[in-house]
Structure formats: C-alpha cells, structure tokens
Amino acid sequence: MNDSLMIIWPLLFLGVIAFFWFNKNQSNEKPDNSQKDVTLPLRLQAYERMTLFLERLKLENLVMRQPIDALSIMEFQGAILSDIRSELNHNIAQQIYISHDTWELITHATNITMAEINTAFGASKDLGSAREVAKFVLQNQGGESAKAISLALEQLKKEAQKLF
User: Fold this and answer.
1) Phi and psi at residue 79, to the nearest 5°
2) Lowest mean pLDDT across 93-97, 108-112, 126-130
3) Is 28 helix (H, G, I), strand (E, B) or coil?
4) pTM beyond 0.70, yes or no
5) 42 neighbors 97 (Cβ within 8 angstroms)
6) Residues 119-147: pLDDT tens digits?
7) How confident is the model at residue 39, as a pLDDT?
8) Where are the domains of the chain?
9) Residue 152: which of 144, 140, 141, 163 has the closest Cα?
10) d(Cα 104, Cα 155) in Å, to the nearest integer?
11) Closest CA to 110 of 147, 137, 149
C-alpha cells in the first residue's frame, strides 16, 4: 500500500499540473474580443484615411489644391508630385491594417498617377503658364490613373464591408 501511494501521488500531481497547463494554453488560443475591440477602430480609420488619400490623388483634386498663378510650370509639377509623395508617406503605416493586395492597388494607382502627371507635363512644356498646363493636364488626362484609383477605392470598400 505504501509503495503504491509513492507511485500514485507523483502521477496525480503531474496529472493536475498537466491539466492546468493544457487549459491555460488552450485559453490563449481563443480569440480575445477585447483585442478585436481595439483593432476594429484602427482598421476603419485606415480604410477612411486611404479612401481620402485616393480621392486626393485624382488629377482634378491635385491640380486644384495648388496655387497655380504663383508657380512656374516646373514648380507646379514639383508641387503636385511632392504632395503625392508626402500624402503617401503620411499614410504609409496604414498598410498594417489593410490587406497586401489592397495596398498594392493603392501604390499602383499612385505610381500610375505620377507617371501620367510626368507625361502630361512633358507634353505641355511649350505652354506659357502653370494655369495653361493645368488646363491641358485636366483636358488630356489619359484615364489610366482614374481607372487605377477607382479600382483601389472599390477594393477598399469591399474589404471594409467584410468587417461588418
């Protein structure tokens, strides 16, 4: 009897420890609703900020935000491109909260828009003022940037709707 107690007590003790350890690890694997409560507003804010970025990326909005009459053509082009880079850099951390595919669409739209701006400014170098260049850019925009921006906006909306 004494020998059997010497074997049973350590096994019972190890069994209790294993039971509590297993339950503790299993509870850590369950999703924590408080964590979801914290990240949901951050994700929504990321979708809002990137939607605003894409709206500001549209050529008509980029052109209208500049003091056209106070800039030379080169300054005008530089100001627009600088605004785009600055806006993207300001929102770069938002990629944590949105999918990789959506972020790729946003950066693609950004790159297409910048290329379209450079092409339009190159084609309008013979015009006399930044105001004339602005008119030329708006009248002759190729539409590729508008399509890329629209696609990225649509993807952002779909992704945000999955949260609800």
Assistant:
1) -65, -40
2) 126-130
3) helix
4) yes
5) yes
6) 888 888 788 888 888 888 888 776 899 99
7) 81
8) 1-30, 38-161
9) 144
10) 11
11) 149
Q: What residues have CB less than 8 Å from 80, skipping those under 6 apart?
A: 62, 63, 66, 117
Token pair listed for 134: 């602005």
Smallest CA-to-CA distance from 147 within 58, 72, 86 is with: 58
Nearest-angstrom CA–CA distance, 106 and 160: 15
Q: Report residue 163 as tokens.
A: 């949260």
Instruction: Please tell me the distance from the alpha carbon of residue 89 to that of residue 93, in angstroms, as a whole number.
Output: 8
Helix (H), strand (E), coil (C) string for 73-115:
HHHHHHHHHHHHHHHHHHCHHHHHCCCHHHHHHHHHHHHHHHH
Please enumerate in sequence order all residues whose Cβ is within 8 A of that of 134, keeping only pairs 6 or more positions apart, or say none.
Answer: 63, 66, 68, 76
Torsion, Cα of 148, 150, 151, 157 (10° steps): 150
Look up residue 113 and give its amino acid.
T
- Label residue 137 exposed, middle or buried (CB < 10 Å: 0-12, 13-18, 19+): buried
